[in-house]
Design goal:
Shape: flat
Radius of gyration: 23 Å
Number of strands: 12
Largest sheet: 6 strands, mixed
Strand order of the largest sheet: 2-4-1-5-6-7
Order of helices and strands: EHEHEEHEHHHEHEHHHEEHHEHHEE
Oligomer: single chain
Length: 365
């Protein structure tokens, strides 16, 4: 299980440049005019995790298979998108299919690159897109409630739950708050997700800064950070131009380039880590002589469901999980050493998988 993150923003904020850098492709045309990305470009990238390489080296694995993350570069939105302006309808439909939204905000001045609003104001840009998404959600709710009302009168329990949740979202939206600000009980979480409200999706603000500010950000990105903090959201500072340059370098030269720029890691690493935290995800590993592989799960996933990420039959016939924590596996220089140190555990159906666990599942075929 990876996850799909939609890259959104007003035209000419650096979405396609960032997408090209992240996926190491030139699939998304980065051009100085609105709507250069007409159809959403989809790219899969390997999730970087140094632990996987360490495990593979210890186990002598012939192959390393990282988990993967999908980025979707979505057409630039303009004011009025909720009413179909620009490419609004396509934009909204494509967002609905994503797990989270990476909202790219222009935090740099450049007279050679036009801004669709005629000024550089990332807070106003964020509000423009948020407003359009909120208007689209309100319109969707207003269309759905009359149909649900008929089912509610007929005693449909699912419809009762949906109506209650939609009305809670409607109240928040009418008060100027996105649906993600609604407090949703654990028992309602699945029904809430089925509603597919645009403003219920987690948002990560990506501050696209000039090269000189890539390491520490600038005044504009600081304002975005304040806004995000007030919303309980996260931010990442990235120079899309630097990321594009890095993506074109051989692996052995990338670290040197990053050091010269005063950066400890590539923006991709920071973006993925922030995305994982945003969605509450973590990684477990399966390791052997054939391959070392990373798998993504939600925090709190129990062992049988983690096994099911590998194959459905593993979950159905789950017997037990043999478990070694990453640090214990490394300290013991492999499974045998971890066993000798007493760090090898056998866990049952109620075990909550931890980030970095090295797992081996036993199951009935």
């Amino acid at each position: 299980m990876g996850f799909k993150m939609g890259i959104v923003g007003l035209p000419n904020v650096g979405k396609s440049t960032l997408f090209n850098a992240l996926t190491r492709t030139a699939a998304a045309q980065a051009a100085n005019f609105p709507f250069c990305t007409i159809e959403p470009n989809v790219g899969e990238v390997a999730v970087p995790d140094k632990r996987l390489e360490v495990l593979a080296q210890i186990a002598g694995s012939k192959q390393i298979i990282p988990t993967r993350m999908t980025f979707v570069d979505i057409a630039g939105l303009v004011r009025g998108a909720s009413k179909g302006e620009g490419l609004g309808n396509q934009f909204l439909a494509n967002i609905r299919e994503c797990d989270a939204i990476a909202h790219v905000l222009r935090c740099f001045e450049d007279g050679d690159i036009t801004h669709v609003e005629g000024k550089i104001d990332p807070i106003a840009d964020a509000e423009t897109i948020e407003t359009e998404l909120m208007l689209a959600d309100l319109e969707s709710i207003e269309r759905r409630l009359p149909n649900l009302a008929r089912k509610v009168r007929g005693g449909d329990k699912e419809a009762v739950d949906q109506e209650r949740l939609l009305k809670a979202a409607q109240a928040a939206l009418e008060a100027g708050k996105p649906a993600r600000m609604v407090a949703v009980a654990a028992d309602d979480r699945r029904a809430w997700e089925i509603l597919q409200l645009l403003t219920a999706k987690p948002v990560l603000y990506v501050c696209n800064v000039e090269e000189a500010s890539a390491a520490s950000g600038n005044g504009l990105s600081a304002k975005v950070a304040e806004m995000a903090k007030a919303q309980g959201a996260a931010t990442v500072v990235i120079s899309a131009r630097i990321e594009e340059e890095i993506s074109q370098l051989p692996d052995e030269e990338q670290a040197m380039f990053l050091e010269e720029m005063g950066l400890h890691e590539a923006g991709l690493d920071r973006l993925i880590r922030a995305g994982y935290a945003l969605l509450g995800l973590e990684t477990f590993f399966t390791v052997g002589p054939k391959e070392a592989r990373a798998w993504t799960i939600a925090k709190g996933t129990l062992a049988p469901q983690a096994a099911g990420v590998i194959h459905g039959d593993f979950e159905k016939g789950f017997i037990r999980a043999e478990t070694i924590g990453y640090a214990d596996y490394v300290a013991g220089k492999g499974e045998a050493g971890a066993k000798e140190a007493g760090k090898f555990r056998v866990e049952g159906k109620g075990y909550e998988v931890q980030d970095g666990d090295v797992l081996h599942f036993l199951f009935n075929a």
